């Protein structure tokens, strides 16, 4: 597999500069000098697998910023070891057969960091918990507006709801645990926030960030309170820390049990709502797990995450352990536990130990014969990780030699003459810069005097200019105010004129209605169920009422049948009725007209029609319908007679044919 590694070392401060070397498929390349900003851009563009450095303290206050900027899948590795257990780059290079040259050259240091990381040396910096916050929100501000803006807001909230449901479905299909909080609005969602119990790498391809549209999806990894350190290779941790077997019982209450490679119980612990980071820190303080065990099959995702974090093997029983079996394991250990969670964790760890016990006892016997019992745990751990016994013993023996050589490490002799020349050159350069500095100070003093003189001249004109600007601003504001008032006045005059005309019409309609020569109409804007309910609620709907519908388009047979059931006297519309409504009203002999046929007078929600005109139109229409019905009945009767006559002729012909055949 091809791996890209970037090696770093600090060159200088203010601004911070780095020497950068890349290692790709065995090929080293010097990339040059980078500032922190350019370095982050370079890493984001190249997306290396590992960024290696001898000590993360060289990043100083920018460490957290640097870790946040790393692309998903890129690890920051400290090759010299965990804090408090660090070794020099040169001793690590000698141990792994890497040739060193000038230890004071930043590019040489960056090269050594990259080469060591390529051999699996070092500890990955863990800055984030295995938790991610995903926030789904609207992408744009709704702003101010009327009906159109309300529709847009509802549409965006529906889109947010759909995106939340989509992410929820994907997480469920991927079997990734999560919690979800939502804020409902407009029959949709204003926002949704997921707390997902998985790393950024596990979410790759499942949840993607979105920006710039109507909906935004932002992903925020949860940072650890303290940085963690995990070895790149398991054998590195085996050498430096105690190797243990860890059993974990996940759930609301997490149980943890730790035993050493001799089967002795080292720690038992349980805690409610214990996050992954706390579990990781608790185990790290005790030792390095070479096996992480569970008592159920298949293994829970929580246990798999812990095993991956420590690069440890995962032990899963062939089938989930029964309660009786767990209790029997604890009786054989002679250990009492505080709760069921500690019991399950200890049973898992001890079950894993029993599975390995024959192999471990064989290793112990061989080491005793070879006189290497002091390094038994280290050899056992390497055997568990997959090395055969001979390889493990050779690896441990090789490690002893570099450490012995490291202690009496002598500093190589250095030729100081080049450095003396460099110091003299720098002293001359400093003297030159001091002279230039003094000249520049004189220029600055002269410029300051010029600035003071110009500021005094500006101050003389400042008050007059300020008064002039204020007068112009006041005048401009008054002109704008006058324009606004004139516009409002014109609009008010138009409104008054329209209302006056409407008032005259209403007065005339009231006079006509009072005299009894006009019939008031109940006005519906459209012919719909909602509008019909409004009329019944506001003014009531009684038998014998005459309705006026402004726009009957879209009405159907059901609402026409309802009007017939209500017993309305007549229906008047501004536009022609739909065919189904006409058929129902015609069948029920309920008259219907257009406003043009009856000369309806209407002002907003009020409408009247002359009583005499209405009654005459109703009588004429009903008379016409009566005649049409009579004609239809006559035609129907004549059709029946004709059908009977034809059938009778056929019958007589048939009988005549039968008599002819008999004769």
Structure explained in plain terms:
The protein is of the alpha/beta class and 663 residues long. Helix content is 52%, strand content 22%. It has 18 helices and 20 strands. Strands 1, 2, 3, 4, 5, 6, 7, 8 and 9 form a nine-stranded mixed β-sheet that branches. Strands 18-17-16-15-20-19 form a six-stranded mixed β-sheet. It has a five-stranded mixed β-sheet with strand order 12-11-10-13-14. The chain is flat, with a radius of gyration of 46 Å. About 3% of the residues have low confidence.
Q: Gist?
A:
The chain has 18 helices and 20 strands. The protein has helices at residues 36-46, 63-69, 89-95, 106-118, 147-173, 234-240, 276-286, 301-309, 323-333, 340-370, 376-384, 389-406, 417-515, 529-538, 557-566, 579-587, 595-598, 611-662; strands at 4-12, 17-24, 27-35, 50-53, 75-78, 123-138, 178-185, 188-196, 215-231, 243-249, 253-260, 265-272, 288-293, 313-315, 518-526, 546-551, 570-573, 592-594, 601-603, 606-610.
């Amino acid at each position: 597999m091809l791996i890209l590694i970037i090696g770093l070392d600090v060159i200088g401060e203010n601004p911070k500069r780095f020497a950068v070397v890349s290692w790709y498929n065995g090929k080293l390349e010097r990339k040059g000098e980078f500032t922190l900003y350019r370095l982050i851009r370079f890493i984001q563009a190249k997306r290396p697998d590992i960024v290696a450095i001898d000590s993360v303290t060289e990043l100083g206050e920018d460490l957290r910023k640097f870790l946040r900027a790393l692309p998903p899948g890129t690890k920051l590795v400290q090759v010299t070891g965990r804090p408090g257990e660090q070794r020099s780059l040169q001793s690590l290079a000698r141990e792994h057969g890497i040739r060193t040259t000038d230890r004071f050259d930043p590019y040489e240091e960056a090269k050594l960091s990259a080469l060591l990381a390529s051999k699996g040396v070092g500890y990955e910096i863990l800055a984030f918990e295995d938790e991610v916050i995903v926030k789904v929100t609207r992408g744009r501000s709704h702003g101010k507006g009327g009906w159109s803006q309300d529709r847009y807001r509802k549409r965006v909230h529906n889109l947010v709801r759909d995106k939340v449901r989509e992410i929820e479905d994907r997480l469920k299909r991927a079997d990734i645990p999560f919690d979800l909080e939502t804020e409902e609005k407009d029959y949709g969602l204003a926002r949704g926030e997921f707390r997902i119990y998985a790393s950024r790498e596990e979410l790759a391809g499942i949840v993607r960030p979105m920006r710039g549209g109507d909906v935004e999806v932002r992903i925020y990894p949860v940072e650890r309170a303290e940085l963690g350190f995990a070895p790149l290779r398991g054998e590195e941790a085996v050498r430096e820390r105690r190797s243990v077997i860890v059993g974990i019982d996940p759930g609301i209450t997490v149980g943890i049990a730790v035993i050493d490679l001799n089967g002795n119980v080292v720690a038992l612990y349980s805690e409610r709502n214990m996050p992954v980071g706390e579990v990781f820190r608790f185990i790290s303080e005790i030792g390095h797990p070479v096996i992480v065990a569970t008592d159920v099959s298949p293994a829970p995702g929580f246990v798999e995450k812990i095993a991956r974090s420590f690069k440890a093997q995962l032990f899963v029983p062939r089938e989930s352990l029964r309660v009786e079996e767990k209790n029997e394991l604890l009786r054989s250990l002679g250990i009492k536990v505080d709760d069921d969670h500690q019991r399950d964790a200890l049973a898992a760890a001890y079950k894993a130990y029993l599975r390995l016990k024959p192999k471990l006892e064989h290793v112990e016997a061989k080491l005793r014969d070879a006189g290497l019992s002091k390094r038994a745990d280290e050899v056992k751990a390497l055997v568990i990780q997959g090395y055969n016994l001979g390889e493990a013993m050779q690896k441990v023996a090789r490690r002893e030699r570099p450490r012995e050589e490291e202690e009496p490490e002598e500093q190589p002799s250095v030729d100081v003459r080049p450095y003396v020349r460099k110091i003299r050159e720098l002293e001359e350069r400093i003297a030159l810069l001091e002279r230039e500095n003094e000249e520049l100070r004189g220029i600055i003093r002269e410029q300051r005097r010029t600035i003071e003189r110009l500021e005094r001249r500006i101050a003389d004109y400042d008050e007059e200019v300020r008064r002039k600007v204020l007068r112009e601003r006041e005048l401009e504001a008054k002109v704008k105010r006058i324009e606004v008032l004139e516009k409002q006045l014109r609009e008010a005059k138009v409104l008054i004129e329209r209302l006056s005309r409407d008032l005259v019409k209403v007065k005339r309609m009231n006079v006509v209605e009072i005299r009894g020569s006009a019939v008031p109409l109940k006005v519906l804007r459209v012919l719909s169920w909602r509008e019909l309910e409004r009329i019944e609620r506001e003014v009531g709907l009684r038998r014998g009422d005459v309705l006026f519908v402004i726009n009957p388009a879209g009405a159907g047979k059901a609402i026409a049948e309802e009007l017939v059931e209500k017993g309305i006297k007549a229906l008047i519309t501004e536009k022609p009725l739909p065919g189904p409504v006409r058929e129902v009203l015609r069948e029920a002999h309920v008259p219907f007209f257009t406003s043009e046929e009856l000369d309806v007078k209407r002002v907003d929600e009020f409408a009247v029609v002359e009583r005499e005109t209405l009654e005459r139109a109703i009588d004429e229409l009903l008379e016409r319908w009566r005649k049409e019905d009579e004609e239809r009945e006559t035609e129907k009767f004549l059709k029946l007679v004709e059908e009977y006559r034809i059938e009778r002729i056929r019958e007589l012909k048939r009988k005549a044919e039968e008599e002819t055949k008999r004769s």
